TrEMBL record:
Classification via PANTHER family: PHOSPHOLIPASE C-BETA-2-RELATED, SCAVENGER RECEPTOR CLASS A MEMBER 3
Keyword annotations: Coiled coil
Leader sequence segment: none
UniProt domain CT398-like coiled coil hairpin: residue ranges: 2-143
Positions of the UniProt region annotated as Disordered: 1-44
UniProt-recorded name of the protein: Uncharacterized protein
Ranges for domain C4-type zinc ribbon: 154-188
Species per Swiss-Prot/TrEMBL record: Streptomyces curacoi
Coiled coil, from the record: 46-101
Taxonomic lineage from the root: Bacteria, Bacillati, Actinomycetota, Actinomycetes, Kitasatosporales
Superkingdom assignment: Bacteria
Residue ranges with Basic and acidic residues bias: 9-34
Amino acid sequence: MAAQTEESDCAREQTKAEQDVDQVRQRSARDQQRLDSGAITSPKDLENLQHEIASLAKRQGDLEDIVLDVMERRESAQERVAELTERVASVQSKIDDATARRDAAFEEIDGEVASVTKEREVISAAVPADLLRLYDKLREQQGGIGAAKLYQRTCQGCRQELAITELSEIRSAAPDTVVRCENCRRILVRTAESGL
């Protein structure tokens, strides 16, 4: 934006400088025409007119130098605008690509969520209502994890190794008994790797 503003400011400045040059050029041409016409006969008026024409020529040269300087600055500003526009387009392309990848990932995640939700509905239908309520309550209290695997005498929820007395109680409990970790209170899931 700043580069575009600089370029448009230079364009306005160039237009004004070129108009100033044209005005001086036209005035100089009129004075030269008066001088060439022979209508002025007074030597003093002729001298003043020649002096004004010389002064206008110097002024025109100075103004043309200003126009050249402004043109150079404008050209530099245009190059900067072109470079920045190209960089913006490149960044926008990267943003568009990242957005497309993000949207695709969201779609994939939404599909997985729908699939897992269906699986959960099927499994939860087979789980007793009171156990499901306990699980949901624990899950809410424990940051989303209501049950943890008992792996090699360690609760995978809190990563604490269970005491020997707890392990004895779990070992002697019936396979369908709900057992819980004494440390984090999560439901423990027993497997062949539990270390019982």
